[in-house]
Amino acid sequence: MRALLIIFVACLFPGFAHAADAPREIDFTQVLRGPTGETLMARGDDGKLDPVTLGDVAAVALDTDDDRNVDPKVKFERDQLARKIYKNAHAILSPEDIATIKARIGKIYGPAQIGATWPLLDPTLNK
Fold it and tell me: Is the whole-model pTM more than 0.90?
């Protein structure tokens, strides 16, 4: 009976089943594309325009200090996650880590970056 209830809930609320997924590998070196397929670019430290990667956006979103009232432990955990993913082509992340990255990108960036990054973090968003 319990198994039947779990299956029923999973069918009724497919997002719940996704949250229980195993860790996934994500390539944070992927270059981001704009809505028309163009490569998103940003000025680098050398003054030249460079392609923007998923890791660039995610690391900045995680390390942006937009709320001084956040517990320092949470800030430390965000920084550790940023260090784990930056320039990592084979980052293994839990669903919770992915949700954190998506939330931070959603809070810090605009629609172009959200639209370019979220489907790379959550393939179910690709339609």
Answer: no
